[in-house]
Write a structure and sequence with these properties.
Layout lengths: L1 E2 L14 E6 L6 H12 L6 E6 L16 E4 L11 H11 L3 E5 L1 H4 L2 H6 L4 E6 L12 H10 L5 E4 L2 H10 L7 E3 L29 E6 L8 H14 L7 E6 L5 H10 L6 E5 L4 H5 L4 E4 L8 H8 L4 E4 L4 H4 L6 E4 L4 H13 L1 H18 L2 H33 L1
Parallel strand pairs: 2-3, 2-5, 3-4, 5-6, 6-7, 7-8, 9-10, 9-12, 10-11, 12-13, 13-14
Antiparallel strand pairs: 1-4
Helix pairs in contact: 7-8, 7-12, 10-13
Length: about 400
Amino acid sequence: MNSSPPHSTSRRHDARPLIAHVVFRFDIGGLENGVVNLINRMPAERYRHAVVALTGITSFRDRVARSDVEFIALGKSPGHGIRLFPRLYRTFRRLRPAVVHTRNLAALETSIPAAMAGVPVRVHGEHGRDVGDLDGSSRKYRWVRRVHRPFVTHYVALSQDLERYLIDAIGVPERRVSRIVNGVDTAHFAPPLARESIAGSPFNDPDLFLFGTIGRLQAVKNPSLLAHAFARLIEASPEMRARARLVIVGEGSERIEIERVLAEARIVDLAWVPGARDDVAAILRGLDVFVLPSIAEGISNTILEAMASGLPVIATAVGGNVELVEDGVTGEIGSSQDADALAAAMKRYLRERDRARTHGAAGRARALQRFSLDTMVGEYAALYERLLATSAGVGRAVAHAHEGSR
C-alpha cells in the first residue's frame, strides 16, 4: 500500500518542512495515537507530514484529519530490515523530509537509510519498554541502540525512566535527549456530571460500581492480573457480588486467560469483555475506577485519558506510571505481581466512594495542569524548530568552509 494525497506533484515545491513519522505498523495503539494527535494539532501552515509504516497501515489512518498527509506502507517481512534499506532510501530521496522521526526499537534502523539519503534531522523516540526487554537489561538491545546512535540527531524519551536509560545505559549525551510527555485531549476526555451508560454494556445500573481497563490484551499489559484481583475481591467479600463489576475492553492473546480466570472463579456474569472498541472516551465516562495492571509502560495514554475523565487510577509501579499517578492523591500505585494488593485497593475504593470521587477530581486537575495536548504539541514543535535551525547553521558553516578553501 502506498497512498499519496491529491496534488502531490505541486507539493514538491511546498516550502513547509516535511516531517516523516516512521513506525513499525500504523494501527490502534498509544504510540500511534500520539502521532495522530501531533499531526492533527501542529499548525498546518508550519509543517507537512508523512507516515511511513515498515509493515502495514490500517483504517486507523482515518483518524488523521488532514488531507495533505501521505501514507506509505512497506510490507516488511519478519527479521532485520536491511533488505528494506534501498526502498527507504528511495522513499526519503523522493519525499525529501526535513525530519525523520522514528519511534521505538522496531523503527530505529530506519535512521541509517535516512542519514544516507541526506535527511538533515533524525529524531528517535523511546515510548516504552520492549516486550523482550521489560527491565532494559538486554545486552543485545543495548548494543543495537549503541550501533545506531551515530545516525540519530536527537532522542525523545517519554518518561524519566527511559531518559535515564538512554543516558546511562546507551551513552547518549544529555544534550541530545529531551523528555516530552504524552498529552491528552482534555476536551474530548472529560468527566460527566454523572456516570454515563456504556453502549452494549450489561452493567448500566447506577447502583453498580465499575472497575475497568482499556488496552491491548497482551502479556505486557498484564490484564489477567486484574481478572485474578477481581476474583479475589469477590471471594474475600462475597457481599460485593451485588455491586462490583469488571469491564475489560480490548483484544489480544491474553483474552483466553482472562476468560479462563473468570470462568474458574464463577464470576463470568460479573464481568464484561466486549473486545476492541473505538468509543474509549464514552467507556471511560461509564466507569468508576480505572485500573492499569501492566508490567511495563512508557507514558500510558489510557492513564492520561482516565485522569482527564475524572477517574481515580489504580496502576502498577512500572515505567512512567509513577510520574502520572500521585499515590494517595489521584489514585493508588502497587506491585505488578500482587493480585491481593490490587484487590485491596479496589476494595478501598468500593467502600469509600467519596474518596474515589476526590481522587478522580484531583487526577482531572493534574491532567489539565501538566499533561495537556497543547503542551505536548508545543514542545515537539519547539524541538523540531531548534533542530532544524541548528542543522541549517551547520550547513551554512560547512558551505562557507568549502568556499574559503577554494
